[in-house]
């Protein structure tokens, strides 16, 4: 999977052959086919692995927020830093594209977003306990959009480094949530 991550990110999913994957992983093509039916299964495994890792990290943030170890603003800052520090931007675009073509990959991505949205709702309510109904749904969508956009900002030539972006972004998200009704 590490070789697939690297090669798919560098060359693209459809431009990478199974032989190149085998060479990059220093295994035989036959071994890859014993583990995966095809490249689509490898993409699904990468998504599932990333989901599990992101959910585990976000669970820790939620636990620390709930325990009062840090403020909701710090929780959002850490959440944004997780996204900003992800270096698989090109791979992520390829995975999203594959999710529109491949129902299984699409379902895995959809499930990830549904699990992740529950955390965003919790963080939004920590910033503004009065959020409910449409306001809470809107907050969830806006936060998700911010996170998604920040995770794909390389091509926009950002002026701020990841730390400053996370700090300022968290401040703005919390201010918006507190002002929402």
Sum this structure up briefly.
This is HTH tetR-type domain-containing protein. With 181 residues, this protein is mostly helical.
Provide key terms for this protein.
181 residues; mainly alpha; Tetracycline Repressor, domain 2; 9 helices; HTH tetR-type domain-containing protein
Notes on the structure:
The chain is elongated. The protein has one domain: Tetracycline Repressor, domain 2, CATH 1.10.357. The protein contains nine helices and no strands. The model has no long low-confidence stretch (mean pLDDT 91). By secondary structure, it is mainly α. Residues 1-54 form the HTH tetR-type domain. It holds the Pfam family TetR_N. Residues 17-36 bind DNA. This is HTH tetR-type domain-containing protein. InterPro entries: Homeodomain-like_sf, HTH-type_TetR-like_transc_reg, HTH_TetR.
**Which percent range fits the helix content?**
over 70%
Total of DSSP H or I helical runs spanning 4+ residues: 9
Question: For the terminal residues, how far apart are their CA atoms?
Answer: 45 Å
**CATH topology-level name:** Tetracycline Repressor, domain 2
InterPro entries: Homeodomain-like_sf, HTH-type_TetR-like_transc_reg, HTH_TetR
Protein name: HTH tetR-type domain-containing protein
Organism: Sphingobium ummariense RL-3
Pfam families: TetR_N
What's the topology here?
Blueprint: H1 2-11, H2 18-25, H3 29-35, H4 39-66, H5 72-84, H6 89-101, H7 103-127, H8 133-150, H9 162-179
Helix pairs in contact: 1-2, 1-6, 4-5, 4-7, 5-9, 6-7, 7-8
